[in-house]
């Protein structure tokens, strides 16, 4: 997760190659907040990201629940 403002946030997000960087950011300068305040700002962003991951896992489970053989599982593409 990125905490930055303005142009810096935009440039960083465009140039960062880290695949798990969240699209949602804390759009404030992190210098003005304590660690606890940053954690409070990050929590809803992380909750949303984790909820999305859980939904993806539920969908995968539902899709695979009907499989009757390991061959069906082996032929499926990964997430």
Description:
This protein is mainly alpha-helical and 79 residues long. It has one domain. The protein is built from three helices and two strands. A two-stranded parallel ribbon has the order 1-2. Helix 1 links the parallel strand 1 (2-3) and strand 2 (25-26).
Question: What would the principal axes of the Cα set say about the shape?
Answer: elongated
Compute the number of helices: 3
Structural class based on helices, strands and sheet pairing? mainly alpha
Provide the β-strand percentage band.
5-15%
Largest sheet, order of strands side by side?
A: 1-2
Rounded to the nearest angstrom, the distance between the terminal CA atoms is 22 Å
The percent range for helix content is 55-70%
Total separate domains = 1
Query: What value does the Rg take, in angstroms?
Result: 18 Å
For this entry, what is the oligomeric state of its chains?
single chain
Total E-strand runs: 2
Q: What is the overall pLDDT average?
A: 90
InterPro entries: BaeRF_family11
Pfam family, one: baeRF_family11
Summarize the entry for a quick read.
It is built from 3 helices and 2 strands; from the N terminus they run E-H-E-H-H. The chain has 79 residues and is mainly alpha-helical. It is elongated and about 55 Å long.
């Amino acid at each position: 997760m990125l905490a930055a403002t303005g142009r810096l946030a935009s440039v960083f997000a465009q140039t960062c190659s880290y695949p798990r960087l969240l699209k949602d950011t804390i759009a404030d300068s992190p210098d003005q907040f304590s660690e606890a305040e940053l954690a409070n700002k990050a929590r809803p962003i992380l909750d949303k990201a984790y909820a999305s991951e859980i939904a993806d896992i539920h969908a995968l489970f539902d899709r695979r629940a009907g499989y009757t053989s390991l061959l069906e599982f082996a032929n499926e593409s990964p997430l």
